Amino acid sequence: MGQGARERLAELLDSSERRGDFSTRIEMPARALRITVDGVGDLPLPVRAPVTRKLIAQARQARFGRGEQTLSDTGVRDTWEITPDRFTLGGPDWQRTLSGVLDGVRTALGLPPTTVLRAEPHALLVYGKGQFFLPHQDSEKDDSMVGSLVVSVPSHHTGGELVVEHAGRSVTYKASRERLTFTAFYADCRHEVKPVTSGYRITLTMNLLAEPVRPVGEPGGSPVADLAQCVTEHFTQPTEDRYGYGRTKPEPPGRLVYLLDHEYTQRGLDWDRLKGVDATRADLLRQAAGQADCEAVLALAEVKETWDAQPPYDRYDYYGEVEHFDDCEDDECEGECLLDPDGEPGAERRRSGDFSDYELTDLIDDEITLGWWTRPEHAGGEQISLPVPYAEVCATTANKDLTPYQSEYEGYMGNYGNTLDRWYRRAAVVLWPRQRSFAARAEAGSAQAVRELQGRLDAGELELARTLARSLAPIWNHHGSGPAAAPLFAAALGVAVRVEEADTAAMLLAPFGVETLDERHAPDLAKAAARYGRTWARGVVDSWFGSVGAYTGADRDAWLETLPGLGAALRSVDGDGDGVATPLAEGVWRAFEQQLTGWLGIGREKERQAALERLGTPLAHILRAAGPETAEMITTALRSRPDTVLECLLPSLRTAARRQAGVRDGTPPARAFQSLADHCETRLTAALARPVRAADDWSLTPDRGCPSDCDLCPGLDNFLTSRTRRTMEWPLAKDKRRHIHSRIDLASLPVSHTTRRQGRPYTLVLAKTDAVFTRERAARSRAETDLTWLQEKWPRPRG
Q: What region holds the Fe2OG dioxygenase domain (predicted)?
């Protein structure tokens, strides 16, 4: 029943009045506009080539935005640009003409009739022969920007067409040679300028700004009553399992998420600035929500779909090697049967990132997450994190009918076929029953819900605050980490201290990541530990590391720099700060140790050394934050590791030496660093005492071997351990050659391995390289340098 209500709702909105399109074109007489440019004067229209060349002399290479950057790349955008501070627009009829154009644009794009549009000049552009602008999407440069207006100035040219696309449709606009051509489109539309083939294309680009408008009343004959009935049915009927498994008892859904067709930014997401049919549908839903006693907000959604997809051509196997035709019986042909007569590959792997010609067959999986939504009564918006289940989603336009902002293709994976991942950004209208407003917002990590708990506590309503807080237990899920989650964590921490129930307090704090913590939270953390006990504090701290506890990511690296200050702050405030600081340091060490162990086992020397060196600075931060017992535990564990651990310890000691504070004053961190320095000195001294490799000794130590104990690896190990054998020729089939390649590469052995493609089977040629000796000499030189530095910076204490 739940799915039926959503389908009927989508159909009702699809059949509602469609107002406008995503783009439009209007022509006006050229005499309506006078353009005056610094250094050129008034432009005669149509603009001729001699005047255009003067314009170019006053212009600069046009730039474009990518994320937060402003770039200049003629491979993406090749045109000349004059900024609006260097030209003026006028003429006796210009304002009247522009006003009429904007009225027409408002109607054509389907904006409400009460909307007031303004056009703000952005640039004067000149495109010469061969110049272009690749497909792109305009950034919304103002909170009230809804679209772009391109005014094509009359000039004699060919090519340079403006192509605008949205939701699978594409429209091509050509400029007039004699009249002004106004082309308007919504800001989320992808568009491009095709290369100019002759002459010069001259345009004014303007930002379309929409002033705030009054709420639109219900249009006559609207299906609001029917929509309200669908909404009510959706929230009262149990959901159906998407795949019919029925493993749990179905419950009515908690919200309804209707996906709109256009994209919006956080700044531009507002009931008064919705685009085209979005405005109509959102207004109808908002009215239906009122009739069904529901609240409605606008949200931004991130959508990912995984499709079973068929590429137009690709003949690669799981390992990335070209497959041969199915009827080819030669196992050693290695794709020769796919070559054309000139010996060139008959199929080329897709790398362009354009997957528009891939055939989508079955939807394997989809994920929808709300990351932002508005507050009621135009009170701005807030960051949230809310995964949305299938049973709560409704859309009139399917995701696959829109243009994804990113796509990634994955070849055959063994358990399933070729898959294509597609990502979309969509706005949504989100509804929920008014009586569950608190739970609906709390489930999304809304700070507003936690502020309601604070208000209850401030009013002395302790029991009601406890009841509301307990109601969060089934829905108070992961709320992220880092600075973005810090305000919500601070609010939840304040409630946890005051709610005076240990289990409820732990539940409120558990969903956050450890990177959320900073020194500002130390007083309340210490108070909570003092109130609920050290066992409680240890359990809460453990929850912040998640189920995996892996040390990963730049976010944690940045946060670890603050860890010593956080530990010091915890131990200095009233309460039981050490009850939090100690398990915090231990938890960070456990997560770090897992990462360290993984890299110590890597045989590829350069990769391992680079990774362990990166871990050196975080290790120094952990030791500086540790108490006496934790510091002793860490140093004991590190001293038991193999010699490769020095690739992490020495960078850590260098970091500590650069930050002298707290490492030479007899504190636990100082003793820990000195212990590690003594250990490194002992290991380096022992390594330098080993005999130097003889000039005729070509032996190598094999890696830990083949886990499958195959019949090939003993032969490889015999070659590697031989003092005199330098080369080996080995006739092997393709799969066996691949196995030997893999063993040599994974262990980073100084052995070249190439295939001589003669005879059947082909011959694998192995040759030990001079790196057998140069690597060892380089390692000895590094050890001598490191030992000298250690004895200077970390001398052993006397006595």
A: 112-212
| pLDDT at 354 (0 to 100) | 57
Cα dihedral value 718, 724, 725, 727, nearest 10: 140
The DSSP output letter for 322 is: B
The number of angstroms, rounded, from the C-alpha of 656 to the middle of its chain's C-alpha atoms is: 33
Q: How far apart are the first and last CA of the chain?
A: 83
pLDDT at position 112, please? 74
CATH 3.30.1370 placement within the chain? 697-792+795-799
Query: Which residues of the chain have a pLDDT value below 50?
Result: 1-2, 214-221, 314-332, 334-352, 413-414, 547-551, 661-662
Q: What is the structure's pLDDT at 257?
A: 96
Whole-angstrom distance, CA of residue 508 vs CA of residue 491: 10
Residue 4's pLDDT is: 74
For 590-629, b where at least 16 C-beta lie within 10 A, e where not — what string? ebbbebbeebbebeebeebbebbeebbbbbbbbbbbbbee
Burial 93-117 (b: 16+ CB within 10 A, else e): ebeebbeebbebbbebbbbbeebeb
**CB 501, CB 533: distance < 8 Å:** no
Q: Is the dihedral of CA 631, 632, 637, 641 positive or negative?
A: positive
Q: Which of 44, 79, 46, 54 is nearest to 180 (CA)?
A: 46
- Cβ distance 300 to 131 under 8 Å? no
Closest of 741, 743, 748 to residue 764, by C-alpha: 741
Q: Is 699 exposed, middle or buried (0-12, 13-18, 19+ CB in 10 A)?
A: middle
Domain limits, CATH 2.60.120.620, in the chain:
18-211
pLDDT of residue 341: 41
**pLDDT of the residue at 432:** 94
How many helices and strands in the chain, by DSSP H and E? 21, 29
User: Degrees (nearest 5) of the Cα angle 82, 88, 91?
Assistant: 135
- Nearest alpha carbon to residue 513 among 474, 461, 556: 556
Which residue intervals of 462-549 are DSSP H helices? Answer: 462-470, 486-499, 502-509, 522-532, 534-543
Residue 57, helix vs strand vs coil:
helix
d(CA 561, CA 567): 11
Please state, in angstroms and as integers, the Cα–Cα distance from residue 559 to each residue in 514, 517, 519, 540, 579, following that order: 9, 8, 11, 19, 20
Radius of gyration of the chain (CA): 34
Q: In terms of C-beta density within 10 A (0-12 exposed, 13-18 middle, 19 or more buried), how is residue 786 classed?
A: buried
CATH code, 18-211: 2.60.120.620
Interacting residues of 580 by C-beta distance below 8 A, sequence separation 6+:
525, 526, 528, 529, 537, 541, 570
Q: Which pair of tokens denotes residue 356? A: 């528009």
Tokens 């054309």 map to which residue?
340
Q: How much is the pLDDT for 327?
A: 41
Q: What is the pLDDT of residue 701?
A: 85
Tokens linked to 346:
């008959």
The C-alpha torsion from 655 through 656 and 658 to 659, rounded to 10°, is 120
Alpha helix (H) residue ranges in 573-645: 578-600, 605-625, 628-639
CATH classification code of 697-792+795-799: 3.30.1370
Note the pLDDT of residue 242. 61
Nearest-5° angle of CA 600, CA 566, CA 638? 20
Q: Give the model's pLDDT for residue 745.
A: 82
Which two structure tokens, joined as six digits, stand for 31?
Answer: 């005499």
